[in-house]
Design brief:
Blueprint lengths: L4 H4 L33 H10 L23 E4 H6 L1 H7 L2 E4 L2 E12 L8 E8 L1 H9 L3 E4 L5
Parallel strand pairs: 1-3, 3-4, 4-5
Antiparallel strand pairs: 2-3
Length: 150
């Protein structure tokens, strides 16, 4: 007695229909719509890139990076360096004399507390370390923190 077809073809990939893709009921079409436009489907991808270039990716968006906080990195300067560079700051016009006290404008700097101030000045900077603030006020000078621009 002849075994039925299903039992005879068990363990064979195509099940009697040749290649797997030949018994799908859709002819030689790969799938629905634009199926098969992946990396390796050369001819269809070439057609898509030529005649429908916006098919891949987010339409009209290009590359969009995550929003970044606009952070500007502050330069660090120590109190002893301020002492050394006072003449340089005067030449650059960063020191202005107001009401008998010299005012040093260090916008874009964070003042750190290494060393001590020798002159009585008003220091205006973007940031101050706690130690620097204490040393500036103890030397009779003033520390003024500039407002953040947002």
């Amino acid at each position: 007695m002849k075994r039925d077809k299903r039992s005879r073809l068990r363990g064979h990939r195509g099940g009697g229909y040749g290649a797997r893709k030949k018994h799908r009921g859709k002819g030689s079409k790969g799938g629905k719509g634009m199926a098969g436009t992946g990396k390796k489907s050369g001819t269809k991808r070439a057609w898509v890139l030529k005649y429908a270039p916006d098919y891949f990716g987010r339409k009209g968006k290009g590359f969009v990076s995550l929003p970044q906080k606009n952070k500007t990195k502050l330069k660090a300067i120590n109190l002893d360096e301020i002492n050394k560079r006072m003449e340089e700051f005067r030449k650059q016009g960063l020191v202005k004399k107001t009401e008998g006290i010299e005012e040093l404008n260090l916008e874009g700097y964070k003042v750190l507390g290494a060393g001590n101030l020798k002159e009585k000045i008003s220091v205006r900077a973007s940031r101050f370390s706690e130690n620097a603030k204490e040393k500036i006020t103890s030397s009779g000078s003033t520390a003024v923190e500039l407002e953040k621009e947002e």
